[in-house]
Amino acid sequence: MSYVEVPGAKVPIRMWTDPASVEDVALQQLRNVATLPWIKGLAVMPDVHYGKGATVGSVIAMQGAVCPAAVGVDIGCGMSAVKTSLTANDLPGDLSRLRSKIEQAIPVGRGMHDDAVDPGRLHGFATGGWEDFWSRFDGVADAVKFRQERAIKQMGTLGSGNHFIEFCLDESGSVWLMLHSGSRNIGKELADHHIGVAQKLPHNQGLVDRDLAVFIADTPQMAAYRNDLFWAQEYAKYNRSIMMGLFQDVVRKEFKKAKVAFEPVISCHHNYVSEERYDGMDLLVTRKGAIRAGSGDFGIIPGSMGTGSYIVKGLGNEASFNSASHGAGRKMSRNAAKKRFSTRDLEEQTRGVECRKDSGVVDEIPGAYKPIEQVIDQQSDLVQVVAKLKQVICVKG
Question: Which position among 49, 194, 270, 326 bears the catalytic label?
């Protein structure tokens, strides 16, 4: 489908979904965003749903301003995937050992490594810039400096919530490795710090929603936020790279005879800010629950832990600010999912997938998410499908 335009105060709201299907609280958030004085465009992806401050699944283009809540607290959260030379025929009948080995290699939940991971020992990890990256930690907000040791040990860890590591098969039977994570606790603490700073600034006192507080260009607060934002986005990218390296090491050891080869890794942020140019204007484009889908850009759009995921290629649609959805998107809150579904429902909906099936992940049940096929169909003018994947192992935090 192409987009539906809904009137907004300063800019029209372009929606790649039926507006009637969007929850009222999310629609109100979109209307609130469209009142911001600095806004130049607003695109809404088919996985849209209510979020803190700004909706998840929204792309906000502003001139001379950026809204930290429109990035989200998991700065740089995103996906990585890689195709391997393995096929379904190489897999053992029982996948529990492989899942256990992945969980041993990559800490999940609030876990961290006992010692910092040395990226130099990981196959395919580009170490250029690594020392420079850590040297720049000295320049981030003083409020998070005491978290340095934790940030170092959490580098290369999964986290919890909707983050996952998956072993997948495409429709031809090829094995893919895929994972979803972001900037861990350090990204959240930086986001919370800067949102708090923004909310106290005089120019934000008259906003319809205090969570939409912005930083404006050529101010020390904006400079500080941009510094920390881009550092956290880099942390997230390195975090996924190290996890993927650890994941590949597990696969190499478990399938020694196969001499596994890996294609280049596809990686994309879906909670981030980018400097881009549209209609002759230099804009700060915030994607919260959206990926960049410029012409030829590879992207990853995952479903839920029992459905499937898509590898896509961007079509470069400027109406969406070269963007596409970041996943299926929730259709109910975590609390609602816990009330609605049981562990038996979880077992039923994840049949055939080697994964946790306990009460701790019921809020991640496939039934709490929108149908991924429908979400893909609604953005046929934004991306083309390259591969459809179905997980056989899913590791959750």
Answer: 326
Residue partners of 259: CB distance under 8 A and separation at least 6:
85
**Chain mean position to CA 213:** 22
Residues 158 and 79: their CA atoms lie apart, in Å, by 11
Answer for the pair 314, 382: CB distance below 8 angstroms, yes or no. Answer: yes
Token digits of residue 242: 């190290």
State the alpha helices, DSSP H only, in the chain: 24-33, 96-105, 130-135, 148-154, 184-199, 220-254, 334-340, 343-349, 372-377
User: In Å, how far are 128, 134, 232, 283 from 138, measured between CA atoms?
Assistant: 19, 8, 13, 28
**Closest-CA residue to 254 (of 386, 374, 108, 102):** 102
The identity of residue 392, as a single letter, is V
Q: CA 106, CA 112: separation in Å to the nearest integer?
A: 8
The predicted model scores a pTM of 0.96
Instruction: Classify 327 as helix, strand or coil.
Output: coil
Euclidean distance between CA atoms 353 and 390, whole angstroms? 9
C-beta separation of 198 from 213 below 8 A = yes
- Taking only the tens of pLDDT, the chain with its 397 residues reads 689 999 999 999 999 999 999 999 999 999 999 999 999 999 999 999 999 879 999 999 999 999 999 998 999 999 999 999 999 999 999 999 999 999 999 999 999 999 999 998 897 776 678 999 999 999 999 999 999 999 999 999 999 989 999 999 999 999 999 999 999 999 999 999 999 999 999 999 999 999 999 999 999 999 999 999 999 999 999 999 999 999 999 999 999 999 999 999 999 999 999 999 999 999 999 999 999 999 999 999 999 998 999 999 999 999 999 999 999 999 999 999 999 999 999 999 999 999 999 999 999 999 999 999 999 999 999 999 999 999 999 999 8
- Residue 326 a catalytic site member: yes
